[in-house]
Amino acid sequence: MSAVLEVADKQAEKQAYENNKLHKRLCRQVGQAIGDFNMIEDGDKIMVCLSGGKDSYALLDILMTLRERAPVKFELVAVNLDQKQPNFPAEVLPAYLDKLGVPYHIENQDTYSIVKRLIPEGKTTCSLCSRLRRGILYRVADELGCNKIALGHHRDDILETFFLNMFFGAKIKGMPAKLVSDDGKHMVIRPLAYVKEADTERYAEVKGFPIIPCDLCGSQENLQRKQIKAMLRDWEKKHPGRVENIFSSLSTVVPSHLMDRDMFGFVDLKTDGIANPNGDIAFDEEPCSTPSAGTIPLQPV
Q1: What is the mean pLDDT of each run of 10 residues along the chain (301 residues)?
Q2: Where does [4Fe-4S] cluster bind (predicted)?
C-alpha cells in the first residue's frame, strides 16, 4: 500500500510541476506579445471579452496574473454578452466572476433570435453574429470607459484566419495582434497571439474553467474554419515545425518578393548597379526549396 501511495504522490508532484510550467509559459508568451506590440500602457482600462470558452477564460486569468507583476498600472473589466441562446446557463459567469473578485458587466441582448430569423437553416451564422456582437461590444466599451478591448484569439486562430483569407478571399491577410477597430474609436488587442490552442485547452483543464458551449457557431460542423483547423493539426502531426514556421513568416514579410503593386514600387523600379542581398537571385533555387520527387536532372548538351 505504501508503494502505491508513493507512486501516486510522485505522479501528483510531477503533474503539479507540469501545470506550473504551463502557467509560466503562458505568462511569458502573453507578456512577450504585450511587449512586442505595446498592447498595454499605464492607465489603460481594458475590457476583456469573456465568452465562456476556454480561450477567453485563459486570457482573463493570465492578464490578472500579469497585472500584479506589471511595471504599469491598468484596470480589467470582464464583459460577457448574453445573446439569449436557449439553455444558456446565465448564472455560471456571474458566480465565477464574483468568486474571482474581478469587476464585470453582463450585457443582455437577444442577438440569437435575430440570427436565427435572418439566416436560413444550415447556413453559416458567424458573419451576422459577429457583426451584431461587434457593434454591441463597442458601445459597452464606451459606456464602461474602456480604451482597449482584449479578445481571446490565440496563435491558431490567427493562422486559420490567414489561410481562410488566402483560400476563400484571395488575400494575404491575417488577424493582427493589435489594431484600431473599424469604427476608429477602439484599440483591439489579442494578448494570446503567441499562445497555442493546445495550451489553452490544457490550461482550461488544469484551472477547471466552467466552459459554456455556443449553440450557434459551435453547433455547425462543416465550417470552413474547422476544415482549416483540421489541416493545420494534420500538418503539425506529420511535419513538426511547419505550423511554427508559417506563423513566424507572418512577422517576416518581404514585400519585394510578393506581387502587391501598392506595397512595393514595381512599376518605377530601376537598376542602380548596387549589389542588394534582397535582390532577385534569378536562376538559383530559393534556399528553402527542395527538388521534387522524380525530377529528371538536366543533361549537358
Answers
A1: 65 82 97 97 97 96 96 96 82 95 91 70 63 87 96 96 94 94 92 97 96 63 80 95 95 92 93 87 63 42 35
A2: 126, 129, 217
C-alpha cell read off for 35: 511587449
The C-alpha atoms of residue 25 and residue 69 are separated, in whole angstroms, by: 15
The residue whose grid cell reads 510578393 is: 258
Q: What are phi and psi of 288, to 5 degrees?
A: -90, -5
Q: What pLDDT does 218 receive?
A: 47
HSE-up of 193 (CA within 13 Å, CB side)? 24
Output the pLDDT for position 300. 40
214 is in an annotated binding site: no
Nine-digit cell string for 120:
436560413
**Is 129 annotated to bind ligand?**
yes
Q: What is the 3-state secondary structure (H, E, C) of 87-148?
A: CCCCCHHHHHHHHHCCCEEEEECCHHHHHHHHCCCCCCCHHHHHHHHHHHHHHHHHHHCCCE
Count other C-beta atoms under 10 Å from residue 25's C-beta.
Answer: 15
Burial 253-291 (b: 16+ CB within 10 A, else e): eeeeeeeeeeeeeeeeeeeeeeeeeeeeeeeeeeeeeee
- pTM of the predicted model, to two decimals? 0.84
156 vs 135: CA distance, rounded Å: 25
Report whether 193 contacts 153 (CB < 8 A).
yes
**Residue 126 annotated as lining a ligand binding site:** yes
How far apart (Å, rounded) are the C-alpha atoms in residues 112 and 193?
28
DSSP-derived letter for residue 287 is T
In the chain, the amino acid numbered 105 is H
Q: What is the pLDDT of residue 46?
A: 98
